Amino acid sequence: MPTVLELYEKLKPRLGEEEARSLLEYIDTSVEHRAATKSDLERVETAMKSDLERVETAMKSDLERVTTALKAELERVTTALKAELREDIHGVKVDLLKWSFAFWVGNVAVVAGIIFALLRTAGR
Asked: Is this model's pTM higher than 0.70 or not?
């Protein structure tokens, strides 16, 4: 990258001394006005830190709200599942009692029939 002096030496023959110096002063002044200073950077840093803290606080608040909502929903689903499970278990118990009763009644009938048949044949 050429220095200001080298650039001046290259522009002087084409533009003239005064014009080359004026052009370089204009560029130097323009760059100084547009370049960020340390205080500009510190202001931006402070603003960004402030924004970041604000966003962080908002995100924490949102996260807590979502966590609370999820816990409530989980509790509701758990309660519903427990109630449904109790209902299913009760239904299975009733079915088991019915089938057990049918099994034992059938067995008693068969045993009674066998005993009746044996008594009948033994009585002949």
From this structure: no
1 CB-side CA count, 13 A: 1
How far apart CA 92 and CA 37 sit, in angstroms, is 80
**Residues counted in the chain:** 124
Residue 15 CA to residue 23 CA, distance in Å, equals: 9
Cα–Cα distance for residue pair 43/35, rounded to 1 Å: 14
For the chain of 124 residues, list the mean pLDDT of each consecutive stretch of 10. 66 76 75 71 92 96 97 97 96 95 94 92 78
CA distances in angstroms from 86 to 23, 75, 81, listed in the order given: 90, 16, 9
CB half-sphere exposure, 101, CA atoms < 13 A: 6
